[in-house]
Design goal:
With about 190 residues, the protein is of the alpha/beta class. It has a single domain (about 35-185), classed as 3-Layer(aba) Sandwich (Rossmann fold), CATH 3.40.50. Helices cover about 40% and strands about 20% of the residues. The protein has seven helices and nine strands. The chain has helices at about 15-25, 35-50, 75-90, 105-120, 130-140, 155-160, 185; strands at about 1-5, 10, 55-60, 70, 100, 120-125, 145-150, 170-175, 180-185. The strands form three sheets. A five-stranded parallel sheet has the order 6-5-7-8-9, with helices on both faces. Strands 1-2 form a two-stranded antiparallel sheet. Strands 3-4 form a two-stranded antiparallel ribbon. Helix 2 packs antiparallel against helix 3. One of its GO terms (biological process) is fatty acid biosynthetic process. InterPro entries: AMP-dep_synth/lig_dom, ANL_N_sf, Mitochondrial_ACSM. It holds the Pfam family AMP-binding. GO terms for molecular function: ATP binding; fatty-acyl-CoA synthase activity; medium-chain fatty acid-CoA ligase activity.
């Protein structure tokens, strides 16, 4: 019971709903601990490898210029593990630490999301329309140890750094380098 979407099979919403209904009715056990990255993403990767599930893109992003990024479940899993390693090793984050991401909806936004789930890091998303005052408030209220942004928004972040006493690392998503910032692409 699947349908074609851009030439690829995908699960119908009714299949997903029936899965959750079976948990609610006690037909399936609710796990004590749940991690989307390992319990879903990695499981679907294995099902595809074993030939028990047709290959589908896990992530498919297209911008207004028609540029695409398409990752399989295996690629998304591998990339999210690499980003989780960057967050824990290069940025020094641990399970329960907080990260603020102020990015437009670029592929790295979703990748950070999954990597944080995988590593147990609390992900605080922020819109790219935030002002310096908004950014400072979010950094102080969340007690974030890391911030992730792009070249365009980095100056606003830098303007509030003296007021963000918990921040330990700054990660930039983009092509260029910036003094005092780690570059995600280079670290990957």
């Amino acid at each position: 019971p699947s349908r074609t979407f851009h030439g690829h099979n995908r699960l119908l919403t009714s299949q997903i709903i029936s899965h959750y209904e079976s948990i609610n009715q006690g037909k399936k056990e609710l796990p004590e601990y749940f991690n989307f990255a390992s319990d879903v993403l990695d499981e679907w990767t294995q099902l595809e490898k074993d030939g028990k599930k047709p290959a589908n893109p896990a992530f498919w992003w297209v911008n207004d210029k028609g540029e695409e990024v398409k990752w399989s479940f295996e690629e998304l899993g591998s990339l999210s593990r690499k980003v989780a390693n960057v967050l824990s090793e290069a940025c020094g984050l641990q399970r329960g630490d907080r990260i603020v991401a102020i990015l437009p909806r670029v592929p790295e936004w979703w990748l950070l999301n999954v990597a944080c789930m995988r590593a147990g890091i609390v992900f605080f998303p922020g819109t790219s329309q935030l002002t310096a005052k908004d950014i400072l408030y979010r950094l102080q209220a969340s007690k974030a140890k890391c911030i992730v942004t792009n070249d365009t928004l980095a100056p606003a972040v830098e303007s509030v750094l003296p007021g963000s006493q918990f921040l330990k690392s700054k990660l930039i998503v983009g092509q260029g380098s910036r003094d005092g910032w780690l570059n995600l692409k280079e670290l990957l």
